[in-house]
Amino acid sequence: MAPGRSSKKPRAAGVRAGRPAAGNRVIKAAEPRTAASRSAVKVPKVPAARPIATKNGARGARATARPAAPPEQQPKPVVRARGLSGPRLEPYMRRLMDERRRLRQELAEMEQHQVKTEEKPVADVSGSYDDDLVDVATETFEREKGMALESSVQGMLQMVEDALRRGRSGTYGVCDGCGRLIDANRLRAIPYARLCIKCKEREERLRSAMR
To answer: What's this model's pTM, rounded to 2 decimal places?
Structure first.
């Protein structure tokens, strides 16, 4: 070894002892994360989407929901009144029995008249042709009128019989339409009435509309 020279080897330029040069840094490989390290990582919370408010102040979820259909309204049961009885019923029953007696007698007279009309000869052979036609037309008209009157009397007699039946069953004086009591003035005028004034007017309007 030559005199005056150091035995130590010269250091590389720019390299310090125990430290790598700035340009020669060693990059360590990333260590794999364990389950504990993954759980330690905080995940940012995402706020839930809020329903959008409408102009009326209702939430979007409620605004989009369809309104529930209203429940069907059941018809109210008709509460029927109690029919007339006792002293209140007796005068009407007497009038109805008198009316039934009168109608039966009138119906019997009509039937007798109808029999006489049918037994009468249609036309006189000795008369002229025109007179025969007049007689035939008159007799036909009288026969048809008698049949119509007889049918009307039979209808009234049927209504009187129904009224007497209602009196015996305890429902006389109760309207068949609304179930309320019929006004006393109406019963005095028409003892066999089965409808009050309002229900009778409604029935007449329906009949007029169907014509």
So the answer is: 0.57
